[in-house]
Amino acid sequence: MKAKNKILGRRALKNFVEKARQAGQKIVFTNGCFDILHAGHVSVLEFSRSKGDVLVVGLNSDDSVRRLKGPTRPVNSQADRALVLAGLESVSAVSIFEEDTPYELIKLVRPDVLVKGGDYKTDEIVGREFAKKVVRFPLLKGRSTTNIIKKVSK
């Protein structure tokens, strides 16, 4: 499947998830900005996929990233970030969300497993009430887009 075909709007995502569920597949959800893809991102995506059959990635829109990270972010556009994510073997579908959190997207997907970085406490994880299980992923030390930007800006 071409990467661009894995980038789904809400209606297409709902259909995708329903088909996966009917086929008895376990659905995993994770989300993030994924601005400059690095080893930490690949690790969390592969970890997430290992928890089920289908991995849905919620991607912050450009406006959402700016509100969260500041006016100089994102470095890469949402279209580019979505295509790079969709091109990864571990990712089954990518859906962009405009809101500050993926709450509505998680509510739509109702994943079997919700994966979030270990920097979040379980009771802080948005949308946890819609998932059957919440799993935290230990972050890779020193791997972050912010660190990469600081390094190349020196």
Query: Order of strands across the biggest sheet?
Result: 3-2-1-4-5
Shape: globular
CATH topology: Rossmann fold
Order of helices and strands: HEHEHHEHEEH
Mean pLDDT: 91
CATH class: Alpha Beta
How many strands, which pairing sense, and closed or not: the largest β-sheet? 5 strands, parallel
| Residues in β-strands, percent | 15-25%
CATH superfamily: HUPs
What Rg is obtained from the alpha carbons, in whole angstroms? 15 Å
Structural class: alpha/beta
Q: Give the count of structural domains.
A: 1
The strand count comes to 5
Describe the SSE topology:
Elements: H1 10-22, E1 27-32, H2 39-49, E2 54-60, H3 62-69, H4 78-86, E3 93-97, H5 103-109, E4 113-117, E5 133-137, H6 145-153
Parallel strand pairs: 1-2, 1-4, 2-3, 4-5
Written description of the protein model:
With 154 residues, the protein is an alpha/beta fold. It has a single domain (3-153), classed as Rossmann fold. Helix content is 37%, strand content 18%. The protein is built from 6 helices and 5 strands; from the N terminus they run H-E-H-E-H-H-E-H-E-E-H. It has helices at residues 10-22, 39-49, 62-69, 78-86, 103-109, 145-153; strands spanning 27-32, 54-60, 93-97, 113-117, 133-137. It has a 5-stranded parallel beta sheet, sandwiched between helices. It is globular, with a radius of gyration of 15 Å. It starts with 9 loop residues before the first helix and ends with a helix. The model has no long low-confidence stretch (mean pLDDT 91).
